[in-house]
Amino acid sequence: MALNKNRDAAVLYINHERHEVRGEEAFMMLADYLRYKRGLVGTKIVCAEGDCGACSVLKASYLNGRSEGFEVINACIISVAQLDACQIVTVEGLSEGGQLSAVQESVAACHASQCGYCTPGFVVAITACLESGKKDLNEQKIKNCLTGNLCRCTGYTSLIEAALKAQPSVQLSASLASRYLPDDRQKDLKAIAGIPLEISFGDKTFCAPVLLKDALQLRSKMPLTLMASGSDLGVMINKGKANPKTQLSLHLLPDLYKIDQDQNRLTFGARVTLTELRKICEKTVPEFAKFLNIFASPQIKNIGTLVGNVANASPIGDTVPFLMVADTLVHVASSRGTRNIPLTEFYLAYRKMSLEADEIIASVSFAIPKQEDRLRIFKVSQRKDLDISTVNSAFLFRMKDDHPSVVSEARIAYGGIGPVIRRFPAVETFLVGKALEPKVIDQALGMIQGDILPLSDVRGTSAYRRNLVDGMFRRFCEELGQKATHQGAEQHV
Amino acid sequence: MSKISDSVIVPKENNKHDSARTHVSGRSEFVDDRPPLPHELCVGVVWSPHAKARILSIDTAAALAIPGVESVQTHRDLHHHHWGTIFPEQPFLAIDSVQHVGEVVAVVGARNQEALRAGLKAVTVSYEVLEPILSIDEAIRQKSFIGSPRSIECGDVDRALKDAPHVLEGKLVIRGAEHFYLENQSCIAYPKEDGQMEVHSSSQHPTETQHLVAEALGLSQKDVVCVTKRLGGGFGGKETQAAPFAVYAAMIAQATGKSARLVLSKDDDMIITGKRNPFQIHYRVGFDLNGLILGLEAQHYGDGGAYADLSTAIMERAMLHSDNAYFLPSARISGQVCRTNFHSHTAFRGFGGPKGVAMIERIMEDIALTLGKDALDVRKSNCYAGPDRNVTHYGQTVENNMLPRLFSRLEESCAYRQRREEIKSWNLDLQKNPRGMAVTAVKFGIAFTTRFLNQGNAMVNIHRDGTIQVSTGAVEMGQGVNSRVAKLVADEFGIPLNDVRVMTTSTEKNANTSPTAASSGTDINGAAAVHACRKIKHRLASLTLQLAKIPPENWANKTAGLGTMPEISVSEGTDSESCIFSDGKVYPKADQTAAIPFATLISEAYFNRISVSEYGFYKIADLGFNKLTGKGRAFLYFSQGVACSEVELDRWTGEAKVLRTDILMDLGRPVNYHLDVGQVSGAFIQGMGWVTTEALHYDAKGKLLSHSPSTYKIPSVQDIPRTYHIDLLPNDENHANVKGTKAAGEPPLMLCFSVWNAIRDALNSDRSRRANAKPILPDELPIPATAEAILRVMKPESFRGWES
Lengths: 493, 804
Description:
The complex is a heterodimer of chains A (493) and B (804). Chain A has helices spanning 30-37, 102-109, 119-131, 139-145, 157-172, 176-180, 183-192, 212-221, 231-238, 274-284, 286-294, 298-301, 306-311, 320-325, 425-431, 438-450, 462-482; strands at residues 10-14, 17-21, 56-61, 71-74, 86-89, 197-201, 204-208, 225-227, 246-249, 259-261, 265-269, 329-334, 337-342, 347-349, 352-353, 360-367, 374-380, 391-399, 407-415, 422-423. Chain A has 493 residues and is an alpha+beta fold. Chain B is an alpha+beta fold. Chain B has 3 domains: 39-131 and 185-263, Aldehyde oxidase/xanthine dehydrogenase, a/b hammerhead (Aldehyde Oxidoreductase, domain 3), CATH 3.90.1170; 279-449 and 627-803, Aldehyde Oxidoreductase, domain 4 (2-Layer Sandwich); 455-619, Aldehyde Oxidoreductase, domain 4, CATH 3.30.365.10. Chain B is 29% helix and 23% strand. Chain B contains 21 helices and 31 strands. In chain B, helix 6 packs across helix 7, helix 9 (311-320) packs parallel to helix 10 and helix 14 packs parallel to helix 15 (521-547). The chains are: A alpha+beta (493), B alpha+beta (804). Chains A and B meet through helix 2, helix 3, helix 5 and helix 17 of A and helix 1, helix 18, helix 20 and helix 21 of B.
């Protein structure tokens, strides 16, 4: 049967052209492929680490069975093979028949391009923002869409103005979806996703099975580099720090796109992006959704996954402190079976997880905080947005029904304070049954400080980190007193 | 987002950047966008991992053995070894030692990226590691200096300081900053017939690039052309430091006969190339009971890095801007550049200006603090005014001084007094994050302080259809110099802007040009273009006057073929003012009915063998700054401005948020209002990044650790002031410059000190509200005021506790 025959080429559409990419070219980063193989040089490469947005392009796919329309991604840290079964639109694809798009016209008219190097990336990111169907975009919402794009010339005000002014015309013009996702192309993309992919070049292989059991079997047979979204791996490859020989991509496994929600828990499959996570949490865990606004850029959140953030095992992963206080379970699968590991027991040492060589993380689930839970999530970094944290933390407290100032349950997690992100059980026990008076706070902080050994590095000295540990907890306690939790005013809404 | 009121300029036209449409569609061509030629090589560099070391050997054999590696070049392959704009002392490629991490030792050319990566790894350099100098203090201790000490003096400062009722001493630590142009250093070198070389370089100084490539390759300058279409940002970082990369690409191209492309990664770029010079400034300032400065003694130490580059000129500008907007009755401003083992620091928007401005603006705050006065009042009373208080410490009279007017207009338009009161009461609540506010000024001298650089040339070619191509030495890097030059030319001939195109900058057309720097691009090149236009206009006016007397059927376009009518020749005595060039037509002043369409007139000129091409040359007159005496007219004029910024500090984390900034600039009569406002907006934000979040971290051995945007944080869209007003003050009186304009590129950057001083103001308020403690000591906050630096000032005991 034809369906069982593996493909040896990634299939993707770039603007109006169908590309079957095999061999060496499939392993190139999309930005390199566009620029050096296809002459689509409007997509620029500056940092090659997903931090500046000059390489922004638009992506749509039907892999998760619920197309999100066009989303902006960084083309510099994702390989062509990983974009198999996707429709890509580059800056060149926005104008039609020599006619600039409404966004392009507006950026030109508002004097929002100076040197021009970041401009295509901004045009693409603004387009994604205005095409998303979000209504009533105000200045702050536009800013949230542009967090992943750096400009060194304009000071940004003209770009914000251009986006705001383009809004009415974009709503009047034909949508990108109507131009680039006609029925036959949708059908083609969906059909492609049903056929397993195996690309080889030299000693490198890229496999993408369509059945979970096949993926697990491959995993058990040989050492290979697992890719949920590969956003971190792409950076490592670009910087010469990684050169994976065999890559196992999960992009064709429909099971891993699942989002399950019951009354108490939310479960996210390994391919669910942070953007989708944020959307779900807007209603269920608004504090976490707000936090996700300052974590990473739209470009990264559109490919990065919650499971990827957990599996990165970074001592400063930004979703982890919250997950640590929310009864998170890591759902692991292998050809031997499945097991569930509490996240609090998952990290063994610096970048070391409780994960066997043949296992993959199929999903992660956490408990939805209750209405009466006092939850706050903090991160401090050199720059507020799109920056790796110096210290991050999450606090989830329950207060006694009859004595609202007395703690009945306390959960505290910090990152950036040692080799792993972790909870502080002794402090949590100590706090139970106590009112958060200054002396108690001091004692709790004394216990925390005695239990951590933060490093000094580019993001801050050890003493600064200790001050942040102090400040975050004190702020949380002060807000508890003011009953201002769940309303964090600092983060962009 | 500019506010409009009758006291500010209201734009009448809306001319876009000349590349706006190609920028937004991704069709503007940058160096790395040029399609690769068949057999083109990619080029990479091997750099030193040590801050200081002796080179024992360089072995290239293993690299050359790798399939795909076609050439490895070292210092042995150069015809000439040293370069340097002021002191030719920096090796293109390290010879027997390396003096900083990132110093380039070898160049590899390979057929593809994979071979290049392997080739770069396979070049073996063995080093004997030596002890580096990694601070200004250590350089001073070892007397490791670049150039000689310089000083600018006026009045009797010793006496003034002795007699002054108040004397404050201070030390200001200013750290470096990365340009972070989006387009990394890049060059493609094309070998041409008969040994010639054409380099396409992302350079702010094509002439120097051409000359250095010629020297390094052993070619004469006639055999090298440097072409620069546009830059994806420069900010000074490509003024001198683009040239070596052009040399590396050209070496590979010459050695292999194949085109060679060198495009640095952001990481390599940040590690190899120099930054804004870090400075340490020590000062003593004496003032009277009203806060009026009586004398200022300042010693600037600049960290030049390993090689001189432009550091001595940068120091000079720091010294010349130590007054900024304020009159110094007596002063001794001294400067010394230190030689350390960091990358050679270089030009960065504002050059040395920001260092002097940072110092004096902090002094204003500290005087106010000492006397319990409002800092704006102290500034206003110290501000330059006429006629007893209008001469700088270097002896130049401040003409067209708009500063007093700028201060009072801004005070009113930003509701300074009212907001000052609001902030005071806000800060009373200890549970609120402290807020602060400051007004600072800029008075930036326009002209290169090195006189001979103040020259430019331009070529104007009018084509037969009446459209014009202009070429100048100016490099377009987003600032809009091409759009401004085009507008000046279009206005000269009275034709539509669309009929003028500014062409690619190339040393083939414009030779011996100065770098596009010092905000002078339009001043120099625009004026040169206007000169060329005037010469052509003179001939066209003579032709117009004569045509008016001849019936059109006898004009040359009908008769020249057969030669039936006599030829018209230009009469030398004609005044170009005798005709009006307007609305695409030309006519004698006296007779508008004889108007001739511009294209028709050009055609007539051609058939009458009258040249409609010209070369214009311009030099800024009346400049005369003597660097040894520190006296003279250093600048043609001053661009001026003021800003008020308000900030809020997170009392738990030290994070600063800029709530509001109001800027009012005097930029003369803008050629293009929107481009000028764009320059103001961007320059301010760039400066704001430098004084807040942009921190360069080096390890103990001198290696830069923050070498990409994941660790070096320039402002993002979320960091701009929550309310941001920019206005331009009307000023038609700047007769010194072409069409009454003023340069806009650098000056607004220096208004960033309104943010830095607002942070200090908030820290002061926080300290006094919490403990009634004495105000913050002047030295506690460095530039940049990162969140950590701010929290250190807020909670000194806590930091001391953890660090003791």
